[in-house]
Amino acid sequence: MEEFSAFIRSLVLRYNLEKLGLDADDLIQEISLKLWKVIDHEKNIHNPASYIKKVVESAVIDQIRRVRKEEELYTSEKQKLISELEPRSNRYQNPPGSMKEYILKATDQLLESRKIVVKLYLLNMSLPEISAYLNYSQDKTRNLLYRGLSDLKAILKEMGFRHERLRD
Amino acid sequence: MNDFETKIRELFNREPEPPGPVPRHNCPRPEELSQSFEPDCPAEIKARIIDHVITCPACQREFELLRGSRSFIDRLSKIMARDKPGPAGKMISVFTSSVTWWKTATAVVLLLGLLSLLYLGITYWNTLTEERRSEAANKIVLSEEVHWPQPALVRLAWKPRDGNFQYRVEVYDQNMYLLWQSPLLSETAVLVPDKVLEAMKDYQYFFWQLLIYSGQDKVSESPVRKVRLVSQ
Lengths: 168, 232
What we know:
The complex is a heterodimer of chains A (168) and B (232).
Chain A: H1 2-14, H2 24-40, H3 48-83, H4 99-107, H5 112-122, H6 127-134, H7 138-158
Helix pairs in contact in A: 1-2, 2-3, 5-7, 6-7
Chain B: H1 2-12, H2 30-35, H3 43-53, H4 57-82, H5 87-96, H6 100-138, E1 142-147, E2 153-158, E3 166-172, E4 178-181, E5 189-191, H7 194-199, E6 205-214, E7 217-221, E8 225-228
Antiparallel strand pairs in B: 1-2, 2-5, 3-4, 3-6, 6-7, 6-8
């Protein structure tokens, strides 16, 4: 639980989610409280593992909804203020020519089976996490990831993407 | 290759986070994001969600939050599976579970079991005591002094038992009908009354038995003895 609390706090801090109303302590407290109830009344729950999953997920989803609501308010207010000054797209775009954009363009050229594995990898997921997410064996995932990354490297080079840090 | 793996991820995530909230466009609902982590979620849905998440910083945060929660849930489930009780533990948990009727039924069965054991124990103890008593009774030494027919006199005697006991004598006719029962006696011999002797004048024999009492309770009884009435 301590580790999970640390993870939530770091996430809130990194993305400045407190601004949007996501209170790490609230979320942790809510989950802890519900989990303690499970432990206290364990005998009444046929499948505690599945119950815990529901508790944690519903708490997280509630928080996401709350954040989205806050975001909506924030962006609509902001857009009201700036809409008169400049027309803008309501779609977030990576800054043109940014590293992220290049990498994404290259990733989109990968074979479908390898693309999703590479994208999950870019989303900071570990090999076991990717395997679990896609319901693949770790061997299959590793194979797809290595081939995908190898293809990505070649595509990036073909695209003329030269970055000193990519040199191995 | 290893170097590339690390660096590509580092470069991809190096972009600064957009300040504040970003406008959303066709974002999946939070439930859909969460659903995509389920093993049985169709691959096309997963692919569609990932295609969106990787380009949407807002959904990326939420995806990461859900990913962390999933990892926490998985670890918790593993701990719970590891702590699952074995067969013996399961047996114990049956008694500690909250199913009330189970508890009641178990308590009733246990109680009945205990009562049965108690009853069997008491019966066995009584049998043992009875056996000891008959054993003791068989050891009682009885004797008779008979003068028959004139003057008719029958004296029944016995060796006293150790302890504070009282005795009763019962006399039966040839058909084992009770003819006479003495009062409780503290002596170790008794004369059969004349009226009883009169009733027995045509008899060839009679039977008698000694009953031993402790207070008002019969403790044991002797075997029945047959006494011949012959001219002396």
